[in-house]
Amino acid sequence: MSILFSDIRSFTSISENMNPGENFGFINSFLRNIGPVIRNNNGFIDKYIGDAIMALFPGFPDNAVQAAMDMQKNISIYNKHNSYLPPISIGVGVHYGKLMLGIIGESKRMESTVISDAVNLASRIESLTKRYKAKILVSEDTICSLTKKSDLNFRKIDIVRVKGKKMGISLYEILDEEIDSLTRKKIASSALFEKGIEFFQKGDLYRSRKNFVEILKIKAEDHPAKLFLERINFHIKSGIGIGWDGILEMDTK
Q: Domain locations in the chain?
């Protein structure tokens, strides 16, 4: 299955200006808009975690990725129709992998849930959307398992080794050209970005830097490109090697 996690950005700062009743109303208003999007893409909601959602999509991950894009479009419509509320944004992470759906608990309290390493990884991918200021991030397993890959715009933005994992994972940003002008600029420079990552992994820092400088000339607000340029400049200035295959080790908490 595909596992999708979504989370409202800056929810704490939004909710602190509301009383408990208003908070419930706000969250339920948001969920009434997002729930149908997930079901319309053949997924089902496994659980709500405060303002976060965990959803599952049987079969190939195309539906999960489409749901993520539809959720982002829905948020834009939601903000226009609820102009009296602070505008909200969400981060969405998707991973495709093996899992087990079952029952946990004891005789007085039971619930259905899924348990697997794939679930943990999907949650961490969602949390990385904050670092990269990305709307949608997915794993390489998700990209490789798509049946209609040619219909999507996406770019590889990093290789990370998250806390608790031995191997690095490639992260991809889904780019829906209908969202905004920044996304269209990202699509235009996606090949340049991936080549910059390739140079970086090979230790060719100066050629890598040249690529990311060019990307930022195309669109200065490309945050993942800024992060890579900062990392490259740090290694050049300090003379420290790029380490374990150039993979960024980080704690996503």
A: 1-152, 175-253
Three-state DSSP string of 191-220? HHHHHHHHHHHCCCHHHHHHHHHHHHHHCC
Distance between CA 93 and CA 172 in Å, rounded? 10
Q: Are 206 and 196 in contact (CB under 8 A)?
A: no
List the structure tokens of 1. 């299955």
Q: How far apart are CA 98 and CA 86, in angstroms?
A: 38
pLDDT at 159 over 50: yes
Q: Averaged over 218-239, what is the pLDDT? A: 89
pTM for this one? 0.89
- 118-148 burial, b at 16+ Cβ within 10 Å, e below that, comes to bbebbbbbbbbbebbbbbbbbbbbbbebbee
Strands in 90-96's sheet, in edge-to-edge order, are 44-49, 52-57, 2-8, 90-96, 136-139, 169-174, 154-162, 248-250
Give the integer Cα–Cα distance in Å for 126 and 213.
27
pLDDT tens sequence across 184-215: 888 888 999 999 999 998 888 999 999 999 99
Confidence (pLDDT) at 17: 81
Whole-number pLDDT of residue 244: 42
CB-CB contact of 126 with 39 (8 Å): no
Is the sign of the CA dihedral 64, 51, 158, 225 positive or negative? positive
Q: Which CATH superfamily is domain 1-152 in?
A: Nucleotide cyclase, GGDEF domain (3.30.70.1230)
CA 68, CA 137: separation in Å to the nearest integer?
Answer: 9
Which tens digits make up the pLDDT trace of 50-83? 889 999 999 899 999 999 999 999 998 888 887 7
